[in-house]
Amino acid sequence: MSIQLLGVNHNSAPVEVRERLAIPLLRLGQAAARLRQFPGVEEGMVLSTCNRVEMIAAAKNGGGNLRGFLAEYFETDVASLQRHLYEYREQEAIRHVFRVASSLDSMIVGEPQILGQVKEAYAVARQAGAVGPELEALFTRAFAVAKRVRSETAVGSSATSVASAAVELAEEIFGSLAGKQVYLVGAGKMSELAAQHLMAQGAGAIFVANRTHEHALNLAQRFGGQAIRFEELYETADRADIVITSTGAPHAIFRREHGERFLQRRKNRPMFFIDIAVPRDVDAGMSKLDGIFVYDIDDLQSVVSSNLAGRLREAERANSIIEAELERFSVRMRSRELGPTIVSLQEHLETIRQAEVDKIRGRLGKLTPEQELAIEALTRGIVNKVLHNPITTLKSALRESQATTVIEVVQKMFNLPATDTPASKERAADATAETFPNRK
Questions:
Q1: Which residue among the candidates 50, 97, 315, 343 is catalytic per the annotation?
Q2: 146 an active-site residue?
Q3: Are the C-beta atoms of 293 and 271 separated by less than 8 Å?
C-alpha cells in the first residue's frame, strides 16, 4: 500500500489560491468519501484549514491519481495550480503528516489549533467510512508523535495563534486597543481566542455576530460583550473600529457597497478589517476605499516572523524526534508487509513438498511408520534450508529503504500468489508476531 499526499499551504500558495480549494467542515466527510471512491484509492482523508488544504490517500500498487481527483472534485484545471501544489509519497508523505500534526509546518510554529483540526478531519473521514487500517495506523502514530513533541520540547511554549496574531496586528495599527470598539464576526474557536486576547489588551466594547445567534450569545456573555443578530450585521458593523471576521461562509460577506455605507455613517472615521477566514470574508474591493483598511491571513506573516527565532530553535529538536519516529513507524509498516510474504512463501513451498511426498509414496508402496517419519523429516529439512536465505534477507531488509523492492523480488522469484485474503492476513499476523515477539 502506498501513502500519498497532495496539497497547498501558506508557504506554497497565497490566500486567493487556498480559498479556491477550501472545503468547509460540513463537507469534509463527503470529500473524504469521494476520495475513497476515486480509482486506485483504498483509503482517503481531506484536511482543510485557513492555511492548508491537503488530500491524504492510501493507494494500492502505486495507484491513485490525486491530481486527477483534485481536478474532478473542484472542477478546475490543475495546470493553473501546478506551481502551488506539493506532492509527497511514502516516507516523505508520512514525515509531512507528522510535521503538520506537531505544528512544525504551521504559519505559527507551535500553535496548538492544528492538532485539533487534524483530529477532527480524521474523525470525520473515519465516520464517512473512508479510513482503513493504513491511515488509521498513520494518524494514530501522528497524534502520538505530536504529543511527544509537545511534551519533550518547548516548541509551543511561546507560540501564538492566528487569532492572537490578528489582535497583535490590531494593536500595531492603533498603538493601543484601550477603548477601541471591536466587532467579532463568527463565534468559533478563532473568535473565542481573539476575544481572550482583546480583553487582555484592554479593548472596549466587544460585539459578536454569528449565524447561530445562541453561539454569539454564549461568546458575548463569557467576555462581557454584546451579541448581535447576524441579519443586523450590516446595520451595526459601523460601530466598530476593528472588525475581526472568521466565518465559514463560501463567499465574501463584506463587499465594497457595505464599506461605503459604513464610512458614511462613521463620517469617514477609518475602519480596520482583519480577515482570518479562508475563503476570505472581505472582498478585495473593500481595501480600495479611502478609510477602509483590510488585512487578510497572509498579512499576519509579518507579525509572526518577529517572534519566530526562539521557536525555530525548539523546532530543530522537534525535527529530531520526528525523524526517529519516522524510522520506527517505517520499520513497523514494512514488518506488516513482511508477514504476508513469509506466510505465502512457506505455504508455497509446503504445497510443493506435499505434492512430491505424495508422488514418492505412490512409487514406493506401503511404508512403515519409521519410513514415513524419515521422509517427513528429510523433506521438511530441505524446505527449511531453502526458506532460510529468503526469510533472512526479508528480515534484514526491514531497516532498509529498499525493503518493498526486496519483498517484490522474492514474490516474483517464487511466483507467490496474492496474500490479501482474510485468512492469509490472519496467518500473516501470527507470522509477524513470531518474527517480532517483543514488538508492541
A1: 50
A2: no
A3: yes
